[in-house]
Amino acid sequence: MKALVAIKRVVDYNIQVRVKADGSDVDIEGVKMGVNPFDENAIEEAIRLKEKGIVTEIVAVTIGAATHQDILRHALAMGVDRVTLVETANSLAPLAVAKVLKAVVEREQPALILLGKQAIDDDAGQTGQMLAALLNLPQATYASQITIAENQATVVREIDGGTQTLSVSLPAVITADLRLNEPRYVKLPNLMMARKKPIETLPLDSLNLSLTHSVQQLKVAAPPERPAGVMVKDVNELLSKLRTHEGLLP
Q1: Tell me: the pLDDT tens digits for 173-185?
Q2: Fewest Cβ atoms nearer than 10 Å: which of 43, 56, 117, 250?
Q3: Is the residue at 250 inside a domain?
């Protein structure tokens, strides 16, 4: 069984992002980048399935400029077999990303397609669902547990108020939640070996896709700063302030 994992390059989750002075976008100049955390869970799950003998080959794919090779090297160091970069200088909306991944899936013919449930930069959480719809494949999102047997995947998924268990036939699209697993620590020797491994590069134009940009980013702004708190002497003063100044109490 072949597994394909789609990953995205985002600002490291430990970094406090800043908005450019002109408000055009987030400033990532010189900022540490890395694999989207949810996508790293997807990579880890594919590797664990391979260690169990269920998956025989893992292919990781990302979309972006040549700088995105760093996260592919990270995937190789974790244990992925092959990696593919769909190269483009443009930033793609979720639907366009899903169309690109559809072309890669049709090329690779995997039995299992894994993605993170969302990316931490835009928090859209749409690509996996759109990809499943375009491929006309079953989907299981927000997975916290995956069990594969007899060409079926049993998935425990996170929902409001609890969990839900689904059984989907393969091939299928599954999106990973953080509770799915704990990604392994990548050792330096593995990173050094990953630098020598080949990266397949596909120019986006070579896929002959018609991608329309239906979403336009107009402006980016930081959230307003939280006002400073006010110290009160006792409960009576607190209630008085809530009534007279904040209008929170009748």
Answers
A1: 999 999 999 999 9
A2: 250
A3: no
Query: What's the domain range around 202?
Result: 2-224
Residue 210: CB partners within 8 Å, gap ≥ 6? none
Q: Are 124 and 8 in contact (CB under 8 A)?
A: no
Question: Tokens 């996260």 identify what position?
Answer: 71
Tokens for 144, please give them.
């916290």
pLDDT in tens, 3-50: 999 999 998 888 888 888 888 788 878 888 899 999 999 999 999 999
Q: Which helix (H) or strand (E) element contains residue 189?
A: helix 188-194
Distance between CA atoms of residues 124 and 106, nearest Å: 24
Q: Does 172 fall in a domain?
A: yes
CB–CB of 127/6 below 8 Å? yes
3-state secondary structure 98-124: HHHHHHHHHHHCCCEEEEECCCCCCCC
